[in-house]
Design goal:
single chain, mainly beta, Immunoglobulin-like, 2 domains, five-stranded mixed β-sheet, four-stranded antiparallel β-sheet, 2 helices, 15 strands, about 5% helix, about 35% strand
């Protein structure tokens, strides 16, 4: 039966992804995968050229493990039902990130949330007539295999958010917060991997109270509307994600 599809953060089909289905005893998501597994034979399959996943399995509760070279592996607790197709989503091994909240006032805090397959360093820059270094934040290394690799929800997470740092960051000391500078403006976090990769993302800092006669408005809602991360925007699939992920956008 067709169980679903596998795609990346752009909703592009991923072929030859390895999937392992292990029947569970109907346990809740809060329980560990080890205690969920029932005494049934696991079923292994791979995604097809168009990302489709076919498996000879019965309806029920499953713990699904996904692994594909060049992407972050993950576990999914899945209820298989006839006639429904699940959309598995994986993140490719590249540098990505965002600040949350993306807009603050001076003195408030935001968390920088970074996805990286390797150790990386972060710095904060203020953009204007000249780009100025505002803060050297430091290096962040893994404390375990792929500890700096994020996990996204399955399905259409343009509607729910990617929820980075939600899993695997239970200690408050591991939260990556930065206090907004006193000087307002448009700031960017610069992220550089140890192998030389680079990614940057914006952070808008407003003053606590008006300090000038002219206010500059940052159209961050427009940025969101035309940001195609996740596979949707006002340019791409504005109504909903199509039933199957993209294989070739020109076709």
């Amino acid at each position: 039966m067709l169980v679903g599809y596998v795609s990346d953060q752009r909703y592009v089909a991923i072929a030859d992804c390895q999937l392992l289905f292990e029947k569970t005893a109907g346990a809740t998501e809060a329980q560990s995968a080890q205690t969920q597994l029932a005494d049934t034979q696991p079923i292994e399959t791979r995604s097809c050229a168009n990302g489709a996943v076919y498996a000879d399995i019965e309806p029920g509760e499953y713990n699904v493990s996904l692994n594909k070279q060049g992407f972050g592996p993950k576990h999914v607790c899945l209820t298989v039902r006839p006639g429904t197709h699940h959309h598995f989503r994986l993140l490719s091994h590249c540098l990505l990130g965002y600040a949350w909240p993306k807009c603050v006032q001076s003195g408030q805090r935001a968390e920088f949330r970074v996805h990286s397959p390797e150790a990386y360093k972060v710095s904060l820059w203020r953009y204007g007539y000249q780009k100025e270094l505002a803060l050297r934040i430091g290096w962040f290394d893994e404390h375990g295999p792929d500890a700096t690799v994020q996990i996204t929800p399955d399905g259409d997470y343009t509607q729910t958010g990617v929820q980075w740092n939600k899993f695997g960051y239970s200690s408050p000391h591991h939260k990556q917060f930065v206090e907004a500078p006193e000087r307002s403006g448009l700031y960017y976090f610069h992220v550089q991997g140890e192998s030389g990769g680079f990614f940057s993302f914006p952070w808008v800092v407003a003053p606590k109270k008006p300090t000038a006669k002219i206010a500059v408005l940052a159209a961050d809602m427009t940025w969101n509307a035309y940001n195609n991360f996740g596979g949707r925007s006002n340019y791409i699939h504005p109504h909903r994600l199509p039933p199957a992920p993209t294989l070739n956008a020109r076709l």
